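User: For my dataset I need records formatted as: sequence, then structure tokens, nothing else. Please produce one.
Assistant:
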Amino acid sequence: MLGPADIRELARVLGVRPTKQRGQNFVIDANTVRRIVRAAEVRPDDVVLEVGPGLGSLTLALLEAADRVTAVEIDPVLAQHLPSTVAARLPERADRFALVHADAMDVTELPGPPPTALVANLPYNVAVPVLLHMLAAFPSIERTLVMVQSEVADRLAAGPGNKVYGVPSVKANWYAEVKRSGAIGRNVFWPAPNVDSGLVSLVRRDPPATTATREQVFAVVDAAFAQRRKTLRAALAGWAGSAAAAEQALAAAGVDHRLRGEALTVEQFAAVAEHQPAAG
């Protein structure tokens, strides 16, 4: 395990200064790292995908628990040195580790067997797009546990009717059952962020039964929340071609056109998507 002194010394040797641009806040508390691995329910046969491994504190804990770990890191200095950190700290597991130096949003293939779990301390500024991209790109991922900004955790886990329910909530729910799995304080990071963090658990499930594609459903979701204070009749006018056409599509889907997007389940959004008027 890497403690606070180890993390700071590694960073000094590598000349690494955590940047806000990449949302880098390194976990320096070994107990927090162990807690994340426990909450993720990592099994000895798991192939874990980690995004943004940083200096490797979570990576090492995952390698001790899983069959293998593949880490995706965008920072060239961190990507170059993480394999040697693993080799020095866990030499007997070094052959179970793979490093992909890339922007996570560009990754569509990984070396080795397909991942069964995603466990990551996601950079705050790109947490939701990276999470949704990974769930879409790797359907083999059965379980996910991510650490994100507390506010983002609330949004991801929110249900219909909640004031923070929105695009991230619906899209995450397309792929998985989503719930909050705890809170993380600021003092376990270096540098300490200005906000608290939260753990979010996602367990893969089949998407809603629908004849609409995921892209078609997500287009309705985006339109509904782009003007979230408007009724669905008004918010979906652009998507449907007119407010009247939106009302017809909503009626065909069995959805009251006076509702707002925050009232609909992912299944209801899918039903609406099935009734998009043909482009005139």
